[in-house]
Design brief:
By secondary structure, this protein is mainly alpha-helical. It is built from 13 helices and 4 strands. The strands form 2 sheets. The chain has a two-stranded parallel ribbon. Strand 1, helix 2 and strand 2 form a beta-alpha-beta unit. The two termini are 40 Å apart.
């Protein structure tokens, strides 16, 4: 569409390198390109966005149209494309997508690996405990009082026997397999931590030196900020992105703020972890919590204030 909203042409292209080249030529055939509105720059449109950015085309992130607009206009690829272009021209869409072409993208990939390994390891230890609960008394009594580390070490080194038709032997064999899986996942998490630490130290040298900021939380905050922080207008905009900005909830004579239920939930979770560590180990944070509690603030409001400070 042109600068006054007239429809010029509609065309479909395959999401392949050749398709991206054809699209770029098609765009330039209609004149000077001011901007391209695009949905899904963080998923299916990631490579498309990278390609256009590499060829000096301004890409604007467009949110999916609300349900009321879709019910009124219908749903198809051409309709969605026209709505995206209209949102950019009208100024409703102003977001700058992440370029995904720097070390932050590598950090994001490793964070995905680490998170999935941690989740799988938690499931594994839960399965071990569940099997112990239902195991024969001889097996259960020998294992029920052990710590997780000692339990995994003993099970991984055990020799269950060869008669798998016997319930006791089968349970022991299953526990050994789970213990070995737990060890493998722990090694995978340790490797991901080492790789993440090296990348984070190179990308943001001072981040890991902050109190309460570990490898996991630092990686998540970098991924949330993206590879070009200038897309964030201010530190307040980063706090809003992390759902740590206060939301007014005043009414009448009541003047208060509430937690932000939107924003990037994983970034908010990272801030929450940092606050928990500081409450446990930082005297200034503990003094702040005590003072605000005496003033009548609830725990969730104190956490909101602390997460805003960390952001």
């Amino acid at each position: 569409m042109d600068t006054i909203g007239r429809h010029l042409a509609t065309e479909a292209f395959p999401t392949t390198p050749a398709g991206y080249r054809d699209l770029l030529e098609w765009l330039h055939s209609h004149g000077q390109v001011q901007a391209v509105g695009m949905e899904g720059t963080g998923s299916f449109g990631a490579e498309h966005s990278r390609y256009l950015h590499a060829h000096q085309i301004v890409v604007i992130e467009v949110d999916r149209a609300d349900r009321r607009a879709r019910r009124a206009a219908g749903k198809s690829d051409p309709i969605d494309a026209y709505a995206a272009a209209t949102a950019v021209l009208a100024g409703r869409a102003t977001g700058t997508p992440k370029h995904r072409d720097s070390a932050v993208e590598a950090i994001r990939g490793l964070c995905v690996v680490r998170a999935s390994a941690v989740k799988a390891r938690t499931q594994t230890v839960n399965q071990i405990e569940s099997l112990i609960i239902t195991a024969p008394a001889g097996v259960r009594e020998a294992l029920r009082s052990l710590t997780t580390a000692e339990l995994v070490r003993r099970l991984a080194a055990s020799r269950p026997g060869t008669d798998l038709a016997a319930p006791t032997t089968a349970v022991k064999a299953a526990l050994k397999h789970l213990a070995r899986r737990y060890r493998y996942l722990s090694e995978e998490i340790a490797d991901a931590d080492a790789e993440l630490r090296a990348l984070i130290t190179h990308t943001a040298p001072g981040l890991l030196t902050l109190l309460g900021v570990g490898t996991e939380t630092a990686g998540q905050l970098l991924v949330t900020a993206g590879d070009h922080p200038n897309r964030l207008a201010s530190e307040a905009s980063f706090a809003h992105l992390c759902a740590a900005a206060p939301v007014p909830a005043s009414s009448g004579r009541t003047d208060r703020h509430r937690l932000n239920r939107g924003g990037h939930r994983q970034a908010n979770r990272a801030l929450h972890k940092i606050v928990l560590v500081r409450i446990r180990h930082d005297p200034r944070t503990r003094d702040y919590v005590a003072r605000r509690t005496r003033q009548g603030l609830k725990t969730k409001d104190i956490f909101r204030c602390l997460k805003r400070l960390v952001a």
